[in-house]
Automatic annotation (TrEMBL):
Native organism: Kumtagia ephedrae
SUPFAM superfamilies for the chain: YjbR-like
Protein's UniProt name: MmcQ/YjbR family DNA-binding protein
A Pfam match: YjbR
Gene3D superfamilies: 3.90.1150.30
Length: 111
């Protein structure tokens, strides 16, 4: 998957917008970051530690925890080149749900 394809997936989510975080593209819902797109063919998702465990065990060739404290909080990086659209769409929805307020999640059908 190319960064442009990921960008389309992220921006398809309700109220998602692209901004920048320390000069790197990020994706937000109501100004809360749910994913970033650093250089090097990666994407970083805001997952829960439990979600991180699930994705890293299911797809170790794609997902890995971010190093350090951010990774222990659930921030997870994915290798775009190794991922398909279905996998990225699923991870992106999880991350979006973790950042979106409850009312928007419910209205969008992502409880």
């Amino acid at each position: 998957m190319r960064p442009e394809e990921f960008r389309r997936i992220a921006l398809d989510l309700p109220e998602a917008e692209e901004k920048a975080h320390f000069g790197k593209p990020d994706f937000r819902v109501r100004n809360r970051i749910f994913a970033t797109l650093p250089p090097g063919g990666r994407v970083v998702f805001k997952l829960t530690p439990e979600e991180q465990t699930v994705v890293t065990e299911a797809e170790p060739g794609i997902f890995r925890p971010v190093k350090g404290g951010w990774g222990r909080q659930g921030w997870t990086e994915a290798d775009l080149a190794a991922a398909d659209e279905t996998t990225m769409r699923s991870a992106c929805r999880m991350a979006w749900r973790n950042a979106a307020p409850p009312g928007l999640r419910k209205a969008a059908g992502y409880p």
